[in-house]
Design goal:
The chain has about 350 residues and is an alpha+beta fold. The chain contains 13 helices and 11 strands. The protein folds into 2 domains: about 5-105, no CATH class; about 125-335, no CATH class. A hairpin with a 4-residue loop joins strand 10 (about 320-325) and strand 11. The structure holds zinc ion. The site of zinc ion has 8 residues, from strand 1.
């Protein structure tokens, strides 16, 4: 029997999307993020979206129909095939079809950020970063973020970090082993990093030894355990819901977007993907933050990195506890005189 497409759309078109979405909601706890046609673009804009802590699923539209409760009861397979074309992928706006696959993600900001708008900001900012990085503040979105960080700093209290932190150095780059080797590096050796300009001191720490190990490229390294004795004011991009609830949505989106979390994909001095995070560093420093806590692009399971921007804190308040030599398989404790850095 040849099915009349127009008639099916006329009869069921109005209610179909609601039924489809509520079926989806009863099955999955996440929302549609993208389809097979735009998946590559989605993960380029949101590199941390594959973080294990977020719920994510993938299902073909035909399999969805076969396993669905409501849709299968209301529509025949032929009707469903026609009606699904009235539903668009929320990411690329292309119509779905029975051969489409959809990805469902539970991103922390999904209800509050217009992902498509945010992606167009990312696109503009990445373009400025790659061509005229000193002009970032001419972009309204970048300038808004700078203002947000100033307001955020006024509302953020300095606090003491009650657990140890870790700092790694590649083993072959250390000649004389002492805790001094784990303090601020000399300016003349500093290349630009995710949160520092070339020649600008910043101390990169991590929440645990494994994150440290992976951040230095998973090679044999020394990892020093330390603690910070003073209260510090932290810009928290890992868990803004708790730390900065008034601006949590903007910070979540920033931290998980390609602006801040793009994995370094160039070599040598050309690092345009760090321009925006260095811009955030400047804004954070200007606003009075001592440090930025940010998710790792290497290990994603509640691990974090902490970059100390305030050199006084890095010089005066850091106390080293112990040292470990670490490779892929094992940690080897190293005996070394404990000292605080002055
Ligand atoms: Zn799509």
């Amino acid at each position: 029997m040849i099915i009349d497409e127009e008639k099916v759309l006329e009869e069921h078109g109005v209610m179909f999307e609601d039924n489809f979405i509520s079926d989806l909601d009863s099955w999955f706890s996440a929302d549609i993020a993208c389809c097979n046609g735009c998946y590559d673009g989605f993960v380029t804009f949101w590199p941390l979206a594959n973080d294990v802590e977020f719920e994510r699923s993938l299902i073909g539209i035909q399999s969805f129909y076969d396993g669905s409760k409501r849709c299968k009861k209301i529509y025949t397979n032929e009707e469903f095939d026609i009606l699904i074309s009235s539903v668009e992928c929320p990411h690329c706006d292309e119509s779905l079809s029975s051969s489409s696959t959809i990805w469902l993600y539970e991103l922390p900001f999904k209800y509050d950020v217009n992902v498509t708008d945010f992606e167009s900001h990312i696109y503009d900012l990445v373009r400025i970063s790659e061509t005229t990085p000193f002009l970032l503040l001419t972009n309204q979105f970048a300038s808004n973020i700078c203002e947000i960080l100033k307001k955020l700093s006024l509302k953020t209290l300095a606090e003491k970090i009650e657990h140890p932190l870790y700092r790694a150095r590649v083993a072959t780059q250390i000649d004389q082993l002492s805790f001094d080797q784990f303090t601020l590096p000399p300016n003349r050796f500093i290349q630009e990093g995710r949160y520092n300009h070339a020649g600008q001191q910043a101390l990169y720490l991590a929440s645990d030894q494994q994150t440290c190990f992976q951040e230095v490229g998973s090679v044999l390294c020394y990892v020093a355990e330390c603690e910070i004795n003073d209260k510090i004011k932290i810009l928290d991009l890992c868990n803004p819901n708790d730390s900065h609830p008034d601006f949590a949505i903007e910070l979540w989106a920033l931290a998980y977007s390609a602006l801040m979390s793009r994995v370094l994909d160039t070599e040598g001095y050309h690092k345009p993907c760090y321009v925006f995070s260095r811009f955030i560093t400047d804004c954070a420093r200007l606003a009075g933050f001592d440090a930025i806590k940010y998710p790792s692009t290497k290990v994603t399971d509640n691990n974090f990195n902490l970059v100390i921007l305030n050199n006084e804190i890095a010089k005066e308040s850091l106390k080293f506890n112990s040292l470990t030599l670490k490779d892929n398989n094992q940690n080897y404790p190293i005996s070394i005189a404990t000292s605080s850095v002055t």
